[in-house]
Here is the input.
Amino acid sequence: MQRLSLFFFYTYIGLVIVAGFWGAFINPYFDFDLLFSFDPNTLNDQVRINLLSQYRFLRALELGFGLFAILFVNKIFGDKTFNILFLFIMGSGILARIVSWLVDGTPNALTQFFMFYELLGWIIIFFYTRKIRLQNAT
Here is the structure.
């Protein structure tokens, strides 16, 4: 279970770091094309600028979460507080995808894949680290 937990942790966090850095600082237009089949250049300048600014901001937060997780991986897998914080942040993203599916409609196959992959990883990490949360409960 440890290897599986670490596999999901590192693949998830690796993608979070790469996607966060890429979307915030390199080429968010690629993301819009790949993920949304949308060209922000079709928007008027002010709307495009605001959209890209907000998107870069959110991708930078994603990058920050990824760096936090890499720097504190030992604490995430060994300390109750860090573990709960990590699971909460990761779980919040998954929950937001589920809410969007229910409220906004069915996402494309790539988005569904990420949601199920993240959810499976969250479940495996949650159960693998359960003993950490219980040990430190006293």
